[in-house]
Amino acid sequence: MDAVSKKHVMKIPGLILLLAAAAQASVIYSSIPSPLPPNVPSLGYEATSSAEFGGLIQFAGVDRLLTSATIVISEWAPESEYEAVGTSTGFDLPMTLKLYDVGPGNTVGALIGSAQVTATIQWRPEADPTCTSGVWRASNGTCYNGFAQTVTFTLPNLLVPDAVIYGLAFDTQHHGYQPTGIAGPVNSTNFGLSSASPSVGSNPLPGTAYWNTSYAGFYADGGAAGVGVFRQDTNWTPYSGAITFDASSPTPEPATTASLITGLVLLGLKARKRR
Length: 275
Known about the structure:
Blueprint: H1 3-10, H2 13-22, E1 26-30, E2 42-44, E3 50-58, E4 65-75, E5 90-102, E6 108-122, E7 136-137, E8 143-144, E9 147-159, E10 163-169, E11 189-194, E12 209-213, E13 231-233, E14 240-241, E15 243-248, H3 254-274
Antiparallel strand pairs: 1-15, 2-11, 3-10, 3-12, 4-9, 4-11, 4-15, 5-6, 5-10, 7-8, 11-14, 12-13
């Protein structure tokens, strides 16, 4: 860059800094404990006849163009129980993360968008004979039924409002939107839960979850408001889904950015000529 160009660029540092900052993602909601422990409380989809589970959350800050979301999974199946499935690392599981508007009365509104991923779920470590009931022992000396791990969804630059309802959906042998009919480790795959308040963002309805279970007795109202539909449920204190959302500010289109820069440079040239 020549000296004249440098002078003109120096006249628009604010714009350059703004564009650089807009490209950086920030955490706008997080309920995942840090550091992630060896295991967390969890909801088993097969065990609770579930198809989808999530919650109503309020984002922090001003960035609303979602870039990614990360959830916690607790896997209870060791490889030794499913030698013919997957690899020595784990097994593949298609999962879908859905985002909805908050409807009247905090009902589930219109679908804003969704993201899918075929996640490699890692096996739970093998049972430790010094633990009871066939569970494993972590390096902290504690025995656990499940093994906590994360799964990340890449979101398609989805612009969201300040509050949304999210839901995680995946299919097990007997449950889900399209049950597989096949016994496998997915029957031991659980959605991780957090027992603490979010570190970023908030839960506007503490103790409330959104859930699709086909068993009426699992809902707090005994299924009075519907069964097998994704809807609000209560009596979840202190638990909520363990999930993090990252977002950035919408950036101008390349042509718009170029026009802004050109316009500011021309203004700088005119100002210089008037001196």
